[in-house]
Amino acid sequence: MKKIIIDTDTASDDAVALVAALRDPTLQVLAITTVAGNVELPLAVKNALLSVERAGTYRPPVHVGAPAPSSASWRRPTRSMGPTGWGTWGPWGSPPSPRPPATGPTPWPAMPAGGRWNF
Q: Pfam family example for this protein (predicted)?
């Protein structure tokens, strides 16, 4: 089984990829890290948590990452993914906002001695 960590901005395209990875019997998702990208960080976290719930399998930890790039300016692209990150429905606007996730993100663990994690 291949062990992976997924780093995502969790708009609709990444949500589908998360569900697929969690349901793939050849993969083990060890953790999910969220960053700002197609959506702001709070939405990326919410959408990742909802994607894990929707997968209906095991629940890897979801960690809160960077709210913006560390070396460049960032502005969220509002046209591509809509206000919730789930896209738009053409002339009908955005889909309704999903319910809040049942769980919250996992706090980051302290860096182990030696400065690296071994999986």
A: IU_nuc_hydro
